[in-house]
């Protein structure tokens, strides 16, 4: 009976394995993120301009009177020149600007393309550098000073020249000066008023001649400096540079002393090693000594 059961177990057919199901490729999930437009090499900049500036105001490129390099200025025919002061965040702080347009009064009058295109992001812009350029008033005197003053210290002799001669100098120095003088007639009286503050004048018939006066120039600069001192520094600069006591740079002194000591020790060690290596073989070859004699020789060399 037992043999029959074993025989049946051996002859029993194994169940057929289930056929593998056909694998269906999984579709990748559809991304709902909207693609961002590519960056630009000339990103927009954020400016703070005068509120009541003329509609004819513009940004011009003139030579900086301090270093004679082209710089940007804001010119208003009614108010004069403005220079741009750059305000930037510290490099360790990551800051950026999100620039968007003002909402229109009639929201229903938007183009149909903006309503129908679901992938449209908008007209905003993200600027990775959080720089702010503020237009601050600038005395026209400084811009015309290169044309009035001598180009070198050797030119000590100055002649009286007419206003048109100085304007020609400005026009030849920069193309934007020429465009401003030709397009805006109000600029010429402005330049003449500032020249009268700096120059000695001589009447030659119906025409006035000008020549720069170093005494008047020194007086104008001194008054500007006194006005700055009278108003004082901004509170943040005064707290940091005036009220706070200066700290002694102890770390720098320690580092200099440590580097000097280490350099001296290294030089002394190299000299001792070289002397010992050079003198020891000569003594061992000519005068064989004991261990005490070798120790005495090394001690003398180290000294």
Structure, explained:
The protein has 303 residues and is of the alpha+beta class. It has a domain at 46-90 and 121-230: N-terminal domain of TfIIb (Single Sheet). The protein is 44% helix and 17% strand. The chain contains ten helices and ten strands. The chain has a five-stranded mixed β-sheet with strand order 1-7-4-3-2. Strands 8-10-9 form a three-stranded antiparallel β-sheet. A two-stranded antiparallel ribbon has the order 5-6. Helix 4 (163-173) crosses helix 5 and helix 9 packs antiparallel against helix 10.
Uncertain regions: pLDDT < 50 for 5+ in a row? 256-265, 267-303
Portion in helices: 40-55%
Overall SS class: alpha+beta
CATH architecture of the domain at 46-90 and 121-230: Single Sheet
Order of helices and strands: HEEEEEHEEHEHHHEEHHHH
State the gist of this model:
The protein is α+β, with helices and mostly antiparallel strands. 44% of the residues lie in helices and 17% in strands. The chain has a domain at 46-90 and 121-230: N-terminal domain of TfIIb.
Topology:
Elements: H1 2-11, E1 46-48, E2 58-63, E3 70-76, E4 80-87, E5 97-99, H2 112-116, E6 125-127, E7 132-138, H3 140-148, E8 161-162, H4 163-173, H5 175-183, H6 187-198, E9 199-204, E10 207-212, H7 214-231, H8 235-243, H9 250-286, H10 291-302
Parallel strand pairs: 1-7
Antiparallel strand pairs: 2-3, 3-4, 4-7, 5-6, 8-10, 9-10
